[in-house]
Every structure is written in structure tokens, then in C-alpha cells.
Amino acid sequence: MPHNPDSDQQLILQTIHAIPCGQVSTYGQVAKLAGLPGKARYVGYVLKTLPQGSSIPWHRVINSQGKLSFPAHTEAYREQKQRLLAEGIVFNDHKISLRKFLWKA
């Protein structure tokens, strides 16, 4: 049965919305929890198309290496890092400890 892009997008957004404050998830983990294994890039696409001012906690989604996906010199990188720091997430040399901060859904 083919996936419906609108319902896939809703599943991804619901999953991201459930990530608790002070924890992070990877693109791949979000895809898997949304029932869309192997669709990590699609998670990135959905986040990229979020409207400005969305209440979805997009900043809690990071890559599988524990890093932010934005280039370090960009405003988006700084905003994401600030939001995560404000939630108590610690960076060690631009990385987040997945062992410590990964959402155990």
C-alpha cells in the first residue's frame, strides 16, 4: 500500500512534537518511530518546510552523529544550539552525547 505524503508528514510532525524538553532525537529515529523506517531524509525535508513560528520543536532533531545539521556559521545553527542549551542539553566539541540526551521513546 503506497504511503500518503500528507499522512506521512503528519506522523513525522506528531513524533517530533512528542520529543520531551531536554532530549533529542535523530532524523532516523523520528522516521522509525513514525513508522517510516529509512526515511530520515524525508524527516529533514518535512522540517525544512515548517512554517515560520511553528510550535513543532524542530530544534530537538539532530543527526546520527550527535551534531546539528546546519553549517556552524549560520543563523539557523546558532538558533538551534541556543534552544537546546536553554533546555539543558550540553555540547562537547559541537556534539551532543546521544547516550545521555537521546530520547528513549
Automatic annotation (TrEMBL):
One of the Pfam families matching this protein, by short name: DNA_binding_1
UniProt keyword terms in alphabetical order: DNA damage
InterPro entries: ATL_DNA_repair, MethylDNA_cys_MeTrfase_DNA-bd, MethylDNA_cys_MeTrfase_DNAb, WH-like_DNA-bd_sf
Keyword DNA damage assigned: yes
Tagged with keyword ATP-binding: no
Record-annotated Methylated-DNA-[protein]-cysteine S-methyltransferase DNA binding domain positions: 9-88
PANTHER family reported for this sequence: 6-O-METHYLGUANINE DNA METHYLTRANSFERASE, ALKYLTRANSFERASE-LIKE PROTEIN 1
UniProt protein name: MGMT family protein
